[in-house]
């Protein structure tokens, strides 16, 4: 019983900040001294019109976040494996080096990046935005996967190969299923970092790439609190869906490796 | 024999010219070792038989960062033979197993199975099944799926796969366990599933890496029995890698003893116990009695003047050893030869035996393991009978070479 109450309290504290957002998104206006706003569905129906660009922003965000996550996985899996399972000179330095994009403010690097991307003709393209999103996502992915691999026993792979599995089969049938929970965590991180990225998209997208945070920014600048709230709530959806979907994978005891010491 | 080129000359035509260079170099280095004579002979014999052997390893060498882990290793096995690779930890036996299973690539040397060179064959194509110490069942698969894994990789249909997996589980006395998760099994059960998973693919060689060391004492016996029974039924060639000499003795027909990356002696367990090649081998197998003597054919003159007769003729200064369990202790002098008057200076009862420490009149210390019913009081006088066929000697010059190693192996106990 007490457990339930504590749980409800936690949920309450976690979701309380979202309550004003929820109210705003259904309000026409909510100003002092009104206790209750004038209710409306206008903001939500506006989301679906093309003029607000919410649909376009949602789509572009999804494409960019999914692509960056996929690419970060492609780099992070082998890199994480090397960092997690092997010992080589300069390993500590490389781990520190990986943190650089997180330590150094993107403001300091953006000018140079923008300059190069313009020369390459990638400024204002989705490819360009995906590339700069890899800047924060790859380090996160690699660090998460390196601790996942550090908890993975490579003898499983030796065992599988001696039983007749080719390297590809070992990866498909043994390694990936065993490190799946960690991969899900890493992918979740990467996806959300990319999904919520504003500054990098703002600069490199040059106003032509329009992700959801950009749409939200425009709505906020326009002073439309109701629409902004509705967009903000929409932008929470993928994270919630992803969490619900992955919680099953994370709870699976049989899958070892798991979160490791993330 | 002294010509270092002798061995490369005997290598078959198949080895390309370029390899021969490396070959000769490796050999030359190897020859700088102390026991080169015995080495070359062993090499040559091994090579002559290599063509006919079911499984053979020739001149296997592997270095890690310039430090040799395995040096010039020659080994062979007949079909259906049970062979153990025994040695203290860090002797290179696991590296050898990894090279045989294909996980590691040897620097030089060749591995043959049924006349086919395996050097370029990846692990999955070697027809060998590995059972590792931890069992290592795949945790995301059920017990049945674990056993059927190798069959699935061989693209055998689901129905056939399940049938064979269930039959194999029955053979390891785990019928009805197919739907369990690996996490629900005890250590012994997991090890049996690992054995079933390896045997179900009908490998030509079953490789066992310390199969019993993770189990507690009473499970070990059962597992040993199971391995031996299955091996007899299936007739698979068995290669066991272990640091535990008891495990090696029980499981195998022949034991290959390794120290510091080199094979020291390959023989039956009986020979290793009774006729060790040198003191290091003797000590590894629990030898505790060593003394120097001068040999004239069958006659051994001890330092203190005592004279013993051995069944094995030798000449010159020798190191004599006798197994502690081969010493008979008598209260009275009943037969004339090889009888030394001794005083009991220590008596330890260990359940199945009594461990006695003895001192002869000339000050020689001996240890004898006698039946527990033979109870001698400390300080009591008795006669130790050393049977001639139990007195084994090797040249004393070897002792100085092996002392260095024996210090190392003594720390293993």
UniProtKB/TrEMBL annotation, chain A:
Kindly list the residue ranges recorded as spanning the membrane.
Answer: 62-84, 96-120, 126-149, 170-193, 199-220, 227-245
Matching entries from InterPro entries are given as: MetI-like, MetI-like_sf
Q: Would you indicate the residue range of the signal peptide?
A: none
Stretches of the chain forming a coiled coil according to its record: none
Q: Which Pfam families match?
A: BPD_transp_1 (PF00528)
Q: Which GO terms describe its cellular component?
A: plasma membrane
Compartments, as annotated in UniProt: Cell inner membrane; Cell membrane
Q: What is its main location?
A: membrane
What are the BP-aspect GO terms? transmembrane transport
**ABC transmembrane type-1 domain sequence ranges:** 58-246
Top-level taxonomic group: Bacteria
Record keywords, A-Z = Cell inner membrane, Cell membrane, Membrane, Transmembrane, Transmembrane helix, Transport
The membrane-topology field of this record reads: Multi-pass membrane protein
Show the PANTHER family listed in the entry.
Answer: INNER MEMBRANE ABC TRANSPORTER PERMEASE PROTEIN YDCV (PTHR43357)
Indicate the family of this protein.
Answer: Belongs to the binding-protein-dependent transport system permease family.
Q: What's the protein name?
A: Putative spermidine/putrescine transport system permease protein
Q: Which organism is it from?
A: Phormidesmis priestleyi Ana
Automatic annotation (TrEMBL), chain B:
The record's section on InterPro entries has: AAA+_ATPase (IPR003593), ABC_SmlMolc_Importer (IPR050093), ABC_transporter-like_ATP-bd (IPR003439), ABC_transporter-like_CS (IPR017871), Mo/tungstate-bd_C_term_dom (IPR008995), P-loop_NTPase (IPR027417), Transp-assoc_OB_typ2 (IPR013611)
* Top-rank lineage group of the source organism: Bacteria
Instruction: List the subcellular locations.
Output: Cell inner membrane
Q: What is one cellular component GO term in this UniProt entry?
A: ATP-binding cassette (ABC) transporter complex
Q: Which UniProt keywords apply?
A: ATP-binding, Nucleotide-binding, Transport
Q: Where is this region: Disordered?
A: 20-50
Q: Main location per UniProt?
A: membrane
E.C. number(s) listed in UniProt:
7.6.2.9
User: Gene3D superfamilies under this entry?
Assistant: 2.40.50.100, P-loop containing nucleotide triphosphate hydrolases
Its membrane topology = Peripheral membrane protein
According to the entry, every stretch annotated as the ABC transporter domain falls at 55-285
Q: Which SUPFAM superfamilies match?
A: MOP-like (SSF50331), P-loop containing nucleoside triphosphate hydrolases (SSF52540)
Top-rank EC class of the record's enzyme: translocase
An example molecular function term from Gene Ontology annotations:
ATP hydrolysis activity
Compositional bias annotation for Basic and acidic residues: 20-48
The name of this protein is: ABC-type quaternary amine transporter
Q: Which organism is it from?
A: Phormidesmis priestleyi Ana
């Amino acid at each position: 019983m007490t457990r339930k109450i504590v749980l409800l309290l936690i949920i309450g504290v976690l979701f309380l900040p979202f309550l004003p957002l929820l109210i705003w998104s259904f309000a026409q206006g909510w100003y002092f001294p009104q206790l209750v706003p004038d209710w409306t569905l206008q903001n939500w129906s506006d989301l679906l019109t093309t003029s607000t660009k919410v649909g376009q922003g949602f789509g572009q965000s999804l494409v960019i976040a999914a692509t960056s996550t996929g690419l970060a996985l492609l780099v992070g899996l082998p890199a994480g494996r090397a960092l997690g399972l092997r010992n080589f000179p300069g390993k500590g330095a490389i781990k520190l080096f990986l943190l650089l994009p997180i330590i150094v403010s993107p403001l300091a690097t953006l000018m140079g990046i923008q300059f190069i991307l313009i020369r390459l003709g990638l400024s204002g393209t989705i490819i360009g935005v995906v590339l700069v999103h890899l800047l924060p996502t790859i380090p996160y992915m690699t660090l998460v996967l390196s601790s996942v691999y550090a908890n993975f026993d490579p003898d499983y792979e030796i065992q599988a190969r001696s039983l007749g599995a080719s390297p590809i089969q070992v990866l498909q049938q043994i390694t990936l299923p065993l490190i799946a929970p960690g991969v899900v965590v890493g992918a979740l991180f990467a996806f959300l970092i990319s999904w919520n990225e504003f500054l990098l998209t703002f600069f490199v997208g040059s106003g032509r790439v329009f992700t959801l945070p950009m749409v939200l920014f425009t709505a906020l600048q326009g002073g439309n609190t109701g629409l902004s709230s509705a967009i903000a709530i929409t932008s929470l959806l993928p994270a919630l869906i992803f969490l619900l979907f992955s919680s099953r994978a994370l709870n699976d005891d049989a899958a070892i490796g798991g979160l490791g010491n993330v | 024999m002294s010509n270092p080129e002798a061995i490369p000359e005997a290598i078959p035509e198949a080895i390309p010219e370029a390899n021969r260079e490396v070959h000769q170099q490796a050999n030359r280095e190897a020859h700088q070792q102390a026991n080169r004579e015995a080495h070359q002979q062993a090499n040559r014999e091994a090579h002559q038989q290599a063509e006919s052997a079911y499984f053979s390893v020739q001149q296997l060498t592997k270095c890690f960062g310039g430090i040799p882990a395995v040096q010039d290793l020659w080994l062979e096995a007949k079909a259906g033979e049970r062979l153990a690779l025994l040695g203290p930890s860090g002797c290179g036996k696991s590296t050898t197993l990894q090279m045989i299973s294909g996980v590691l690539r040897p620097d030089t040397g060749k591995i043959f199975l049924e006349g086919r060179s395996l050097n370029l064959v990846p692990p999955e194509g070697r027809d060998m099944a590995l059972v590792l110490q931890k069992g290592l069942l795949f945790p995301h698969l059920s017990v049945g799926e674990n056993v059927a894994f190798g069959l699935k990789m061989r693209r055998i249909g689901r129905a056939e796969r399940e049938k064979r997996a269930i039959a194999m589980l029955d053979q390891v006395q785990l019928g009805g366990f197919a739907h369990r998760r690996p996490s629900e099994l005890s250590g012994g059960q997991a090890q049996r599933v690992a054995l079933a998973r390896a045997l179900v693919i009908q490998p030509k060689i079953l490789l066992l890496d310390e199969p019993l060391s993770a189990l507690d004492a009473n499970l070990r016996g059962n597992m040993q029995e199971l391995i031996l029974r299955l091996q007899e039924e299936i007739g698979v060639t068995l290669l066991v890698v272990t640091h535990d000499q008891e495990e090696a003795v029980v499981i195998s027909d022949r034991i290959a003893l390794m120290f510091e990356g080199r094979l020291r002696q390959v023989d039956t367990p009986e020979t290793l116990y009774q006729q060790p090649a040198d003191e290091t081998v003797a000590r590894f197998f629990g030898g505790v009695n060593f003394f120097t003597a001068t040999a004239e054919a069958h006659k051994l003159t001890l330092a203190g003047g005592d004279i013993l007769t051995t069944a094995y003729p030798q000449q010159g200064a020798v190191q004599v050893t006798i197994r502690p369990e081969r010493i008979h202790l008598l209260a009275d002098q009943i037969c004339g030869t090889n009888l030394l008057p001794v005083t009991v200076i220590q008596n330890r009862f260990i359940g199945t035996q009594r461990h006695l420490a003895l001192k002869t009149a000339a000050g020689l210390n001996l240890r004898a393991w006698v039946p527990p019913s033979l109870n001698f009081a400390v300080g009591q006088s008795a006669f130790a009978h050393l049977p001639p066929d139990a007195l084994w000697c090797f040249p004393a010059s070897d002792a100085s070479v092996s002392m260095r190693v024996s210090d190392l192996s003594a720390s293993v106990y």
